[in-house]
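Translate sequence into structure tokens.
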Amino acid sequence: MTMPAISYSQACRDPNLFGEWFAGDSWATWRVIDKAMFGEPLDDAELAIFTELTGRDAAPTQQAREVWIIAGRRSGKDIKTASVAAYLATIAAGPLGFLRRLKPGERGVVQVLAVDRDQAKVCMGYLLAFFELPLLKQMVKSSSADSVELTNGLAVEITTNDQRRVRGRTVVAVIFDEVAHWRGDDAANPDEAVYQAVKPAMATMLPGAMLIGISSPHARSGLLYRKYRDSYGKDGNTLVIKAPTWVMNPTVPRDSEIIGEAFDADPAWASAEYGAEFRTDIEAFLSREVIEACVDQGVRERLPDRNKRYIGFVDPSGGSSDSMTLAVAHIEGKTVVLDCIREITPPFSPQAAVIEFVATLRDYQLSMVFGDNYGAQWVQEAFRKIGCAYELAGRAKSALYLDFLPIANSGAVALLDHKKMVNQFTALERRSQRGSRDSVDHPRGGHDDIANAVAGAVAIAARNTTSFAEFMSRKQQEIPPGCWLMPPLPDARERRGRIEIG
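Result follows.
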């Protein structure tokens, strides 16, 4: 792409453009990055900084196709994201830039895909402030909560990460904001899914189209880590930059009170959040390949069989934020077979959810179900009132996952074809803890309600020894006679929850 009359680094120092925001010595490291991203020449001092940030000896001579910036918190990532988006959609767009590639009537977009709505709002606030500048304000045609339409035929969109938002669009540039922390049940790896979806959307804008990922790091997995592993310190059109908070923003030094307290409280967390180091204490719990190898493709649910002995496991919820889930399984030979998955998504009435689940348990000839300690007293009472015993599993969630692991790795489980379940298992993280057993849980911002119920049902069914069978028989006998005289199910409008089947 032909270099525009004003480069991005110049725009960040021009008082009529972004200079007001990026004045001062604290932005010195960013100024080197500003130049390197677009292939501007670096002097000797800048080259030394560039080498420290990238592990590369030679400065790039042309604009990078992909830029991945791994930086600690409080590094100024959001405001730089908004400024790059504004620059690419206006000054860099044409007439020698993207505009000359757009066909008549075609609309090009610069997208900022954020980790969540709150992050998107922060970036949008900065973007709107930039478009109040007199030189840029005249280019604004209209604006909404998540986009700014420009008179040049381009638009800037700031939304949450979703591969559906990039399909059907002509993307001239895209920025993945806090990409290491993207989460979602629709894809096991939403960062990889969006990355694969956006590349075709940028195809007609090459060369010149630009993809930027900017984030603090997390575990040694996912798109950001893959790009770091494959391209850091290597020449080419993928530029990877890595620096801690105190290098990116000298106003927050390494010996500051906030960073010192963070390292004292949790060194592994602080090393990632401020030190820009990928965490070594967090690993993927299960690979997608292992889980998918256990799935009976095309089997969404198995009908009840009176000749089989089933186990049910519930992951309860209060009805406001997390789903309430149920899984039913049984043993066939040496294989645990998953028969049924139920999920009721919030908001819902917990009591109505219990009624729904007990009806399903009854179909499988079950008058008791296992579950964890969540709200133990009210959950046990809710199930007991309609004739179903609720037995505490006696194992923490992490322990159940760790029990499930060897069963899945050995292929001794036949799972249902349930995309959300597969994605939740794939997203689970295993954390090493000194002096105690590893913990397993969903990542920050994620969910594992279905995976939890399935792991519980499978792990408990796998312990179906003679003594366990006797225990189950005794528990069934403890249910009072006539307990299945259930009240009628409420009308769907009263239940309010949405139930999903496997």
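Note: Residues 465-469, 479-502 have pLDDT under 50 and may be disordered.
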